[in-house]
Amino acid sequence: xxxxxxxxxxxxxxxxxxxxxxxxxxxxxxxxxxxxxxxxxxxxxxxxxxxxxxxxxxxxxxxxxxxxxxxxxxxxxxxxxxxxxxxxxxxxxxxxxxxxxxxxxxxxxxxxxxxxxxxxxxxxxxxxxxxxxxxxxxxxxxxxxxxxxxxxxxxxxxxxxxxxxxxxxxxxxxxxxxxxxxxxxxxxxxxxxxxxxxxxxxxxxxx
Length: 207
Description:
- The protein is built from 9 helices and 4 strands; from the N terminus they run H-H-H-H-H-H-H-E-E-H-H-E-E.
- It has helices spanning 2-26, 34-45, 48-53, 61-75, 81-91, 97-108, 112-130, 153-160, 168-179, and strands spanning 133-140, 144-152, 185-191, 199-205.
- Strands 1-2-4-3 form a 4-stranded antiparallel beta sheet.
C-alpha cells in the first residue's frame, strides 16, 4: 500500500512538472524553475498536512496538492490570482482535451440532462459518504438539480496554505463542463466557495 502511494506521488510530480513548465511559458516567466516546483511538491507530499487531507476517496488529494504547489510557486513571481489561474489553466489545456471531447459527445444526446442529473446524484452520494463536502441542501426534481455547499475540502486545502481564492481553478471546472452542454442543459452558478460563503448551483433541463 505504501509503495503504491509512493508511485502515485512520484508519477504526479513527473506529469505535473510538465504542466507547470507550460504554465511558466503561459505566464511569460523565464526565470522559473521546474526543479523548485518538484522539490516543493515532494516536500508537501511528505507533510503531516497532506496525510491529514488525503483521507477522502472521492477527492484526488494528490492532484489537488500538485495544483496548490503550482500556485505557491507562481506567487513568488508577484502574479495576481487571475494571472495564476489563467497560467495554470493554460498549462492543463492538453490534458483536459479528452474531457472536453467527452462533454461534446454527451451534448449530442437528447437525454444529456438526464446524464448530467445522474452525474450530480452520484457525486453527491460519494461526497456525503466520505464527508469531503457538506451540503446545506441537495434537491432533485424531474427538471432540476439544485444544491448549496457550505464546506468543501478542495477549498479547505487551499485555505490551509493561505490561497483560498486560487481554489477557483477547481471551482471553474463545473462551469467549463456545463459550457459544453448547451443543447438540453442550463447551468447557473450563483456563488462559489473560493470567494463566497457557499457554492450554490442550479442544473436545469433546457426547454
